[in-house]
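anyone seen this seq b4? input:
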Amino acid sequence: MNLVGGVALSGSESTLQYMIVSYHLNGSLASIQPLTGELQLCPEHPARVGLFRQFGSQYENRCALSLQPLLTAPDTLFYDVFYVDNGKLFPVPVKNLNYREGGRLVNVDSSGVELTSPSARVVLHQRFVMYDNLSGRQGKTTSPPTILSYAVQTGLRVTMQSGSSSLIYPPLLVIRHSEREAVSLNDDLGSWSTVLFRAEYTKDLTSVWTAAEILFTLSLLTIGAVWLLHLWRMSLNYDVDHVNRKFLVEALSYLVLVASDILYWLVFIMCTYFLLFFKCQSTAFILLPLEDSQEEYVFTTVVIFVFFGKCFSICRVLWQQISVDLFFMDWEKPKLVSGNETGASSSVSVWRKLFVANEWNELATARNVNVDLLLIVLLFLLRGINLEYLATSQPSLSLTPGSASINILLRFAVSSGLIMLLSLAQLVYRQLVHHRLFAHQAAEFIDFMTMSNISAFVLDSNFHGYYIHGRTLHAFADSSMEEMTRQLHMERKEMVKERGLIGGKDTFEMFVTPDFRLHYISIFLEMAHLRRGLKPFSLAATTERGATKDQQGFRPGDDVALAKASAKLNRFLCSFIDRNSSTYSWAESERTFTQRVLDIPPAIRQSNMTLFYDDPNYKFTSLFLVGIEYQIVTFLAALYAVCDITFSNTFVSIMVVYAANQTLSYVRHHWGQINISKKTLVDERFLI
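predicted toks r here
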């Protein structure tokens, strides 16, 4: 039998009408009245007790219920529920999940899960009880019950007819009972039970899930295509005849990165689709998947995979950043000592290199997205103005707390959407306002290097790296304030040539040849070997007061071998950049449009010279946190989503994300500082 009355998301037809008839044990009529809270054993606020009748709103009332009062509660009543359909009463069928035939449970499978398949054989009833404190009595009906039966789970399920936005099938009441011995209820801990009442509104979402499957298939194809492209890029500069573990780890790591990234956006698009169309619809075009359904299980599984994939990718990128090969090239020449007849030269000051190393260390943890500010604003939006209630399972934009249960798909769309919007707003501000009117840290760092007469040579992989040209235009950088002011004045008046290595260009992406790489590593390993062989240094033997704790461990200032090795690498790199090396040379090159779009590297293994590509967009910032802002934000968004699913608490989720971001910055700063000290020979105690 089909119902003829229609339903709607607003107006009088949005509230479903039920009548409930109660009977005593002897079959006599007890009452006939509109259904309110009779199906809910958990106490509920009077203003909320009827919310389950609001069409389209998923309602849930869950509590820890004390069972002792049910032993002495009024005698058991039997109920019939009727749906009011255009003034007519239609009996609501009841699916009792405890019903047995021949000792076998009929309405559930072997694992106790409700049978919901249309082809499954189920048995429906009409009359039911919410609790039974009569049948467990022995002897007289006035005897105390020995067994208490109660409805531990009750669900009122309303399903829309396929192809209709206003017609529904007859509602279905699903009940699962549980039993307790009266003796066990004397124990205070054993007298409690979790009881649930839920109102569910469903619609056939086959078309939606078909579209989701198509998107998922396209996502897998995209993941495969991007991964194969990356493998091809790797093979250009790799000996494919000798694939080793490093190659496989790199390939699998990139696969995890791409898969987690694309699946994150797939889940975000699907959840945003539900948020927009469910919340803004005027007719019942779409309803949400049921709570604890297969769809929610798939969603949770994908989000957890995305989180671990993002976590792995962030750890991998951090490891790459804190293990780059870095060397600061000092172009400064010794000054002749005036009045010295022998023509002796003064030594070159080390302070410029120390300052540059500290600026590099500071730039390593600089960010365009202020996560602390983002989380404060996010907390204000979610809890301050109740935007988190946009995720309630009701087809309206109401922000009233407690008006309906929170849906995890909508919650993901709201939280991730706000995180992305707040991050994007900060990035737009940085690019359009802050970098233009106030400060651009990367550009200022390059200016500082030029004034310090120091360049940076960085290799972040075997054959790839960056070169930042910081050679000054003046005779000396180690000068007085008066001389430095005069130098800046000359540059302003264009009295000297343009800064930069070639045509005003001072930042380059470079691809070095294997021979160059081997020679560079050989000199660097010479320094590393000498450094490991040094013994701790203490001033106690040379001063009367002895050395302080912070002074102990400094490398001895007269270690000639280490200084010579460092100077050797400095001379080699300076000679290479000046094109004075007869063995190693470089040339400026330009990528084609296809190479830029697909990020295709040159086949440097077949080249006889190092290639320099102009880097006007400061791609070298990928060595710092500011260069992986996208990866960090998506990782934090995935972490927030997992915490939200686990704790369902905005405050806890934000605190976990805050702690993760602080840990990220600390690890990058601490271990990056150690790497700077190890690779540039700047003592870690000078890095602040």
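Residues 245-280 form the longest helix (36 residues). Confidence is low (pLDDT under 50) at residues 535-558. kinda curious what u guys think
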